[in-house]
Amino acid sequence: MGDPAGIGPEVAVAAYAALGGRIGNRALRLVGDADVFRSCGGVPPEAIVSTRAHATRSPGKADVTNAIATIEAVTLAVGMALKGEACAVTTAPINKAVLMQASFGFLGHTDYLAKLTGAPRAVMMLVGEGLRVIPLTVHIPIAEVPRAVTASTIVETAEIALAALRRDFSVSHPRLAIAGLNPHAGEEGVLGSEEADVIAPAVAELKRRGHAVLGPLPADTMFHAEARARYDAALCMYHDQALIPIKTLSFWDGVNVTLGLPIVRTSPDHGTGFDIAGKGLADPRSMIAAIRLAAKMADARAG
Predict the structure, then answer these.
(1) Which of 23, 45, 55, 79 could disulfide-pair with 33, CB 3.0 to 4.6 Å?
(2) What are φ and ψ of residue 125, in 5° steps?
(3) Taking the CB of residue 67, how many other CB atoms lie within 10 A of it?
(4) Regarding beta strands 123-128 and 131-135, do their DSSP bridges make them parallel or antiparallel, or are they unpaired?
(5) Is residue 255 included in any domain, yes or no?
(6) Are strands 233-236 and 265-268 parallel, antiparallel or unpaired?
(7) What CATH number corresponds to the domain at position 237?
(8) Does residue 161 contact residue 168 with C-beta atoms inside 8 Å?
């Protein structure tokens, strides 16, 4: 369901309708407050897995009292997937500020999903047409990024990404490009030392383990068409380094994927859209793409 005041319920109901209530041979289910979904359009009663907690849909108006139902919807859907009652989970956007006011204790879906599933570490990947990107650091200030970029984190994240490319995307011999942190990948130390001191040793260790990796590469030349043909995914050092290219290429149909979980989880690559909620302006393409990718990943794991 996502935040009941945002566009999440709208695009979920619109995606359900556009896909005819099914994806392949699997039935779709909407998880959340039944009244919230019904307020967004006609939905068959059997399509809704309702939370016990109730929410109020006032489009565009954040309400901390909705936090319980928002969190319960995620917990319920993940529980269904862990028990084999669902093959994948696609989440609508949540409002972090509202959840923090309710003492949620997690920065977003990714951290909470890791706790629910017992995953040692969850990794965010953004997927669009012809590009997959992984931000090494996500929702932290730019000033904190250099301290968070460590060789061990790069190696760990890269191996999670490479394993997911094999298991979830059926890439038999995945290739990973690894970006530098500084302009021109440090320009041989003139513009920064992190490439030589941290990133290059991590790349060397990944190669020693038998992985096909490139880097550290200048981020400003990694994303044109010829460069993208050289790799299957790109590991970037910080949030905007990864998200600017993916949103430029696939703004309306990009998908957020959580790697490293025992379940398949995707989400649309947009926020709650409070400014357009309830106005009939929400575009469901990213939600539809997220559902389709979740089904494709589930098929890859099953097959």
Answers:
(1) 55
(2) -125, 140
(3) 23
(4) antiparallel
(5) no
(6) unpaired
(7) 3.40.718.10
(8) no
pLDDT tens, position by position, 267-299: 998 999 999 999 999 999 999 999 999 999 999
- Its domain, for residue 50, covers 1-119+262-303
Please give the distance of CA 96 from its chain centroid, rounded to a whole number. Answer: 15
6 and 101 share one domain: yes
Same domain? 104 vs 211: no
Tens-digit pLDDT profile for residues 65-106 = 999 999 999 999 999 999 999 999 999 999 988 888 888 888
CB 169 within 8 A of CB 227: no
The secondary element (H helix, E strand) that includes residue 217 is strand 212-217
What is the chain's alpha carbon radius of gyration, rounded to the nearest angstrom? 20
Contact 256, 291 (CB under 8 A): no
How many domains, the chain?
2
Q: What is the pTM of this model?
A: 0.92
Q: d(Cα 213, Cα 85) in Å, to the nearest integer?
A: 37
**Domain-located, residue 256:** no
Token output for 60: 């565009």
Residue 57 belongs to some domain of the structure: yes
Cis peptide before 135 (omega within 30 of 0): no
